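Running this now, will post back.
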Amino acid sequence: MNDSEMRRRELLRQTRKLYDDRRDIPAVHPRYGRIYHDLYKNGDEEQEPSGGTFYIRLVIGILCFVCFVYMDQSKAEIAQVNSTSIVNQIEKEMDTNAIIEAWKAL
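Update: finished.
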């Protein structure tokens, strides 16, 4: 191994160390250390998957649609609600001022 090859290897090692994603957490003031450590956990620990709810919402939406189709096909009525009343409520024009006032009242 000649000098230029050793120098290239050393520079490559330094560059990898500089841009490595698994760096140690930098020194943080003790007051903020817990928050920082909670946000940026060590790479050694298994990271939990993000709390996405897309699939849960998708399943709920599909179940609601299946229930609506069943109600429409069999002319079923649940709690004095049938498929035509659901369609009427969906098509109903909403008063935006009343909605804004209701939100402000909460």
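The helical segments are 3-18, 30-39, 54-74, 83-91, 96-105. More later if anyone needs it.
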